[in-house]
């Protein structure tokens, strides 16, 4: 094909990469339609006329966006039925499968962190309390960029055109959140053999293998949720404070 999506797009060297969705909102509807087309026909191998579709939407999605989505689904793909649900409500419903959940309820606070944006969404009885939603401009891509920056300062063996891809792979394979950043630094300094990891990659052009020592990046990457000033000097509210603020702003009768 003349275009690829998902992991194939990341792996297609020499192709320009475009993102139809930015900060959780569709920006390019033509690209989005082609994306859905490949999802349905190539990956699901399904006939859209034969299936009902459930699509998710971000909180505070505009009616225009919902309309465009419905138009593409009904007119381009001829689906017999469509339901568009808010991601946070579905996440609460999915939590019912956990053994720790004693009572099935659609009331709770959802932290929805994607690639481009993080939302803290209060939900009461299945309805999003829109006026209390908080938007945080720190998400998965920011962690990747931050790890890329840390590696760039220390590691010279990564091919420049693969630095972002390598940072993303390191984040997904080795990243974790630590309870105490000072103690974590100490662990790495006193027992480097136990905590440092090695990432092995292959140069996409020369096919030569390369390896990267991964240390502090493992916990410093996700730490930007709690110290956002590491990555974004314009935003300094830790996610823990933001969650507390959302709950306090909710009507008192829905707080539990």
From TrEMBL:
<comment type="similarity">
    <text>Belongs to the actin family.</text>
</comment>
<keyword id="KW-0067">ATP-binding</keyword>
<keyword id="KW-0547">Nucleotide-binding</keyword>
<dbReference type="Pfam" id="PF00022">
    <property type="entry name" value="Actin"/>
</dbReference>
<dbReference type="GO" id="GO:0003779">
    <property type="term" value="F:actin binding"/>
</dbReference>
<dbReference type="InterPro" id="IPR020902">
    <property type="entry name" value="Actin/actin-like_CS"/>
</dbReference>
<dbReference type="InterPro" id="IPR043129">
    <property type="entry name" value="ATPase_NBD"/>
</dbReference>
<dbReference type="GO" id="GO:0005524">
    <property type="term" value="F:ATP binding"/>
</dbReference>
<protein>
    <submittedName>
        <fullName>Actin-related protein 3</fullName>
    </submittedName>
</protein>
<keyword id="KW-0009">Actin-binding</keyword>
<dbReference type="InterPro" id="IPR004000">
    <property type="entry name" value="Actin"/>
</dbReference>
């Amino acid at each position: 094909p003349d275009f690829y999506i998902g992991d194939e797009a990341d792996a297609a060297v020499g192709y320009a990469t475009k993102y139809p969705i930015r900060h959780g909102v569709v920006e390019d509807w033509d690209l989005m339609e082609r994306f859905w087309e490949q999802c349905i026909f190539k990956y699901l191998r399904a006939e859209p006329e034969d299936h009902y579709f459930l699509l998710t939407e971000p909180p505070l999605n505009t009616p225009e966006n919902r309309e465009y989505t419905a138009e593409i689904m009904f007119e381009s793909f001829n689906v017999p039925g469509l339901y568009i649900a808010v991601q946070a409500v579905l996440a609460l419903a999915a939590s019912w499968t956990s053994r720790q959940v004693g009572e099935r309820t659609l009331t709770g606070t959802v932290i929805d962190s994607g690639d481009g944006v993080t939302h803290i969404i209060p939900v009461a009885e299945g309805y999003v309390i829109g006026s209390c939603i908080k938007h945080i401009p720190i998400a998965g891509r920011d962690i990747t960029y931050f790890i890329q920056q840390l590696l760039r300062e220390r590691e010279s063996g990564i091919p420049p055109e693969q630095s972002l891809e390598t940072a993303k792979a390191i984040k997904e394979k080795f990243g974790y959140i630590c309870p105490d950043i000072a103690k974590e630094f100490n662990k790495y300094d006193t027992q480097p053999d136990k905590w440092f990891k090695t990432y092995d990659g292959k140069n996409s052009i020369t096919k030569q293998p390369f390896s990267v020592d991964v240390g502090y990046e493992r916990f410093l990457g996700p730490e930007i949720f709690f110290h956002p000033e590491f990555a974004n000097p314009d935003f300094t509210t830790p996610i823990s404070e933001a969650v507390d603020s959302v709950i306090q702003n909710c009507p008192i009768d829905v707080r539990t």
